[in-house]
């Protein structure tokens, strides 16, 4: 099936849930194509007649910044630009006289943020068609906001929960490349996620990866070659984490033209991408733990990954506990392992935790451990 990798099943499920009024949190680690999928879902929703408004909030760290970006996206929506903006501004003037000339983004700074957001959603809810707010990297925003003011971030998250529960015509579609549930536990706001539909996004299957390979060739992004016996299976097994990003960048380095790539040539491509010239392709994996976990947790998780990297089959729980020392409780270890599984570093295989990607394990041995 030529479009198997276009996530048609995932898209259909998301659109069905959203049109039924269910708000969604898509759990999607880095380099897996979540933003591409969100853009396709936006297009699918618009074809049904729904209003779909996408906001990118990575890099934001305050409620004010969040509201300003949301207002800009609403004002950029052609069908909302004039009439809706005028309606909201009129409503805000009724609530507060502190509204002068300008658009929604300017008004956002003049009112209590919670009152402003509630008014905005209430006005959107009056529309005849569904309005879907697609918020990309919402988890990153919540984390950065919580670092500055955990209480305010908690209030915002609970308010959004109240809004998605009470505004049937306004649906929220949230994504994040870090676990919002982990952030919720860390800052005592996990209860705000109750009631939202959790949809995990998995990497490509082997069949989807092959379809993606064929599309890359059709678009002349990679060379024209086939796979010799066993070569594609080796590629899939060694890569492990079949994300579009890593599939593309490894296949670009396969040195064969108009022939069949052997296992040895696939292995040579893996060797090239692990060279210093291509370390940038792994930067997100290298930086993620330090950027998104408290220092003590980050140090423990790096030790865990160093232990896991020593053997392709990983290690059992008792080994990690013994190597990390008596200062780490079992529950804390299991929390770290769970986070590393969610973030696609590790996978639980029977009683062992091992690297999900053989390529990432080799990178870790070469440059990190």
TrEMBL record:
<feature type="domain" description="ORC1/DEAH AAA+ ATPase">
    <location>
        <begin position="24"/>
        <end position="183"/>
    </location>
</feature>
<dbReference type="GO" id="GO:0005524">
    <property type="term" value="F:ATP binding"/>
</dbReference>
<keyword id="KW-0547">Nucleotide-binding</keyword>
<dbReference type="GO" id="GO:0016887">
    <property type="term" value="F:ATP hydrolysis activity"/>
</dbReference>
<dbReference type="InterPro" id="IPR027417">
    <property type="entry name" value="P-loop_NTPase"/>
</dbReference>
<protein>
    <submittedName>
        <fullName>ATP-binding protein</fullName>
    </submittedName>
</protein>
<keyword id="KW-0067">ATP-binding</keyword>
<dbReference type="InterPro" id="IPR049945">
    <property type="entry name" value="AAA_22"/>
</dbReference>
<dbReference type="Pfam" id="PF13401">
    <property type="entry name" value="AAA_22"/>
</dbReference>
């Amino acid at each position: 099936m030529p479009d198997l990798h276009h996530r048609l099943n995932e898209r259909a499920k998301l659109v069905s849930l959203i049109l039924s009024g269910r708000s969604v949190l898509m759990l999607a680690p880095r380099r897996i194509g979540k933003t591409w999928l969100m853009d396709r879902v936006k297009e699918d929703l618009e074809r049904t007649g729904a209003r779909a408004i996408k906001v990118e909030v990575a890099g934001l760290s305050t409620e004010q910044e969040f509201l300003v970006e949301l207002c800009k996206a609403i004002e950029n929506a052609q069908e909302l630009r004039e009439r809706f903006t005028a309606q909201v501004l009129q409503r805000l003037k009724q609530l507060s006289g502190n509204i002068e000339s300008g658009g929604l983004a300017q008004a956002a700074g003049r009112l209590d943020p919670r009152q402003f957001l509630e008014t905005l959603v209430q006005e959107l809810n009056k529309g005849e068609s569904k309005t879907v707010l697609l918020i990309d990297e919402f988890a990153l925003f919540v984390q950065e906001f919580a670092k500055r003011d955990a209480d305010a971030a908690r209030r915002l998250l609970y308010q959004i929960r109240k809004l998605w529960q009470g505004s049937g015509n306004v649906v929220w579609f949230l994504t994040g490349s870090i676990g919002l549930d982990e952030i919720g536990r860390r800052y005592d706001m996990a209860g705000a996620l109750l009631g939202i539909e959790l949809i995990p996004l998995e990497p490509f299957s082997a069949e989807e990866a092959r379809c993606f390979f064929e599309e890359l060739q059709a678009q002349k992004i990679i060379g024209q070659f086939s796979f010799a016996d066993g070569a594609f299976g080796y590629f899939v097994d060694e890569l492990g984490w079949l994300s579009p990003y890593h599939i593309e960048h490894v296949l670009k380095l396969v040195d064969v033209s108009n022939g069949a790539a052997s296992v040895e040539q696939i292995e040579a491509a893996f060797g090239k991408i692990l060279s210093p010239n291509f370390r940038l392709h792994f930067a997100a994996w290298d930086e993620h733990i330090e950027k998104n976990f408290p220092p003590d947790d980050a140090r423990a998780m790096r030790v865990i990954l160093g232990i896991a990297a020593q053997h392709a089959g990983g290690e059992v729980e008792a080994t990690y506990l013994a190597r990390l020392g008596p200062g780490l409780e079992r529950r804390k270890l299991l929390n770290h392992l769970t986070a590393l599984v969610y973030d696609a570093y590790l996978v639980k295989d029977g009683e062992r935790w091992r690297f999900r990607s053989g390529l990432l394990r080799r990178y870790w041995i070469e440059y990190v451990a």
